[in-house]
Amino acid sequence: MKYYIIAGEASGDLHASNMMKALQKEDPNAEFRFWGGDLMQAVGGTLVKHYKELSFMGFVEILMNLSTILGNVKFCKNDIAEYQPDAIIFIDYSGFNLRMAKWAKQEGFKTNYYISPQVWASRAKRVIDIKRDIDNMFVILPFEKEFYKKYDYKVNFVGHPLIDAIADRKLMDDKSFRIENNLNEKPIIALLPGSRKQEITKMLSVMLSLVEDYKEYQFVIAGAPSQDYDFYKTFIKTDNVSFVTNKTYDLLSVSKAALVASGTATLETALFKIPQVVCYKGSNISYQIAKRIITLKFISLVNLIMDKEVVKELIQNDFTKKNLKLELDKIIAGETREELLVNYNLLEHKLGGAGASMKTAKMIYELNK
Fold first, then answer.
1. Tens-place pLDDT, residues 132-159
2. Is 0.70 surpassed by the pTM of this model?
3. 186 falls in which pLDDT band (50, 70, 90)?
4. Residue 68: what pLDDT?
C-alpha cells in the first residue's frame, strides 16, 4: 500500500520512523511519502518537507508566519492529491494535521492519527471535528481512551512509543560517552531546553545562570536536531558547560539530574529514572492566552499521567534562578529521590509496556487494506 505520513517535529520523526519499520514488516509492499526528518528518511521513501522548515511555536509566532503555514497547507493538499495514497497517517502536530485531516476526509482518503492532539488539555470541542475527520485514532497516554469515551468516540490505546525507542537504542557507557564528548569526571547535570528557538531562548539562559553555583558539577546541553551549535554558542559564557547533539538518551543515561523543558523530554527523563525539574517559559502574550484556554492541573506528562505532582514544575514567572537552584538542590541531595524512583516505576507500568509501534502498524495495515 501507499502511505502518506505527516510528522512536523523531531519527536514525530522518531515515532513515525519506528512505525514505518513496523509497517514494512506487516506490509512488504509499503511505499512511503512523508513530511518528517532524517530518521524517517533513513527508513526509506520520499521526504517531501523536513520538519526543520515547520517549527513555529506559540500564538504570536504562528501569526507572524501565517503566510508560510497556509502555503504549506496548499502544497500538502496538492501533493497528496497527486500521490493518491491508500492511507494517510497524521503524527501529532495537531495545528497543521487537523486542518489537513478535514480536507483529506472530504476528498475520500482514509485518515489515521497516531499520537492524539492534546484535546484533553484545551479546546475539547475539537473532538467533534476529530470524530468527523479521523477514521482511526491511536492514542499513547492511558487516560486518553477514557477521555474520548466521554464523547462516544472509540480509540485504540497502543502504549507509549518512547518505551520502545529507549529499549531499542544502544547506549554508550559512561566512560566512552565522556571521552567522545571531551567531558571530565565531574557528575553531569543535563540541560534539555526544548527544540524550538523561541523556547530555548526563553529558558537556556536561566538554566545556565546556575553554572557558577555548581562548580563541582558539569552542565551539558542536549542540542535539538533542528538547531545548530552556533545558536547555542551565544548562550554559553563559562567553561563548565558542554554541548552534545543527537545524543540526548546517552546524556540522560549518565546524568545525575536534569533541568527539562516541558514536553516529551520530561517523560524521556523519567523513563531513564533521572531526577528532574520541569521548566516552562513562553512569550508573555502566548502564556496569557494559553493560561485562559488550558484547564490542566499540570504541564508535564509525568505529572499528568500520574495525576499528582511527581516532579516539580516551574512555570513562567516561577521559573527564576532562585527557584531553580532551590529545586535542583533538592534532587541532587536526594531528599526526594527514593520516592521519585518509585513513582517513575509506576509511571512506566501505566504507559502500557513495549510494542506501541508494532501494535499501531498492525492495526493501520488491517484497517486500511
1. 999 999 999 999 999 999 999 999 999 9
2. yes
3. very high
4. 65
Distance between CA atoms of 82 and 108, rounded to whole angstroms?
14
pLDDT at 65: 53
How far is Cα 327 from Cα 260, in angstroms, rounded to an integer?
Answer: 12
Three-state DSSP state, 99: helix
pLDDT confidence of residue 60: 44
Cβ count near 125 (within 10 Å): 9
| Alpha-carbon span 281 to 319, nearest angstrom | 7
Q: What is the rounded distance in angstroms from the CA atom of residue 148 to the CA atom of residue 113?
A: 14
Distance, in Å, from the CA atom of 106 to the CA atom of 129, rounded to the nearest integer, reads: 12
Rounded Cα distance, 369 and 356, in Å: 20
Give me the CATH topology for the region 172-350: Rossmann fold (3.40.50)
Residues 39, 246: contact at Cβ < 8 Å? no
3-class secondary structure, 90? strand
CA 311 centroid distance within chain: 18
Banded pLDDT at 98 (limits 50, 70, 90) = very high
Number of continuous H segments (helices) and E segments (strands) in the chain: 18, 13
Average confidence (pLDDT) over 321-327: 95
Among candidate residues 12, 257, 239, the one with its CA nearest the CA of residue 117: 12
Domain spans of the chain, in order of start: 2-160+354-368, 172-350
2-160+354-368 against 172-350: fold identical:
yes
Grid cell, residue 218, equals 558539569
Looking at 3.40.50.410, 3.50.30.80, 3.40.50.2000, 3.50.50.60, the CATH number of the domain 2-160+354-368 comes to: 3.40.50.2000
Q: Which amino acid is at 32?
A: F
Closest CA to 311 of 319, 320, 302: 302
Burial class (CB in 10 A: 0-12, 13-18, 19+), 86: middle
